[in-house]
Amino acid sequence: MFDGLSQTRYVRDIVIATDDERIRAQRSSSARTVRMTRADHQSGTDRVAEVAASYNAEIVVNIQGDEPLIDPNAIDAAALSLIEDPDLS
Fold it and tell me: Label partner for 84 (CA 20 to 30 A): which of 26, 53, 58, 78?
């Protein structure tokens, strides 16, 4: 799951945010950290927001579980846009 993330140029840390013990147990080999979240979130984005609030990151890239084959270049393009224009949110 998401092993292509290791091919990105701008992703420095990969954290999986989940409320499902099965996902924690099957975590991607590229993720150093799995953070268990509250179970009452309505979406994966809410889980990412919960975890991101505890990190001191300038940029957070939200990749959902149904995107395991996302092109690493697409991730880099999105991150680079944010790096180059700090006024973007």
Answer: 53
Q: How many helices (H) and strands (E) does the chain have?
A: 3, 2
What is the spatial distance between Cα 41 and Cα 57, in angstroms, rounded to a whole number? 22
pLDDT on residue 87: 87
Per-residue tokens: 82: 């944010």
Which residues share a beta bridge with 67?
A: none
Residue with tokens 């799951």: 1
| Predicted TM-score of the model (pTM) | 0.79
Taking residue 53's Cβ as centre, other Cβ atoms within 10 Å add up to 8
Which secondary-structure segment (H or E) carries 33?
Answer: strand 33-36
Each residue's pLDDT tens digit, 64-87:
888 878 899 999 999 999 999 988
Residue given tokens 């179970």 in the structure block: 39
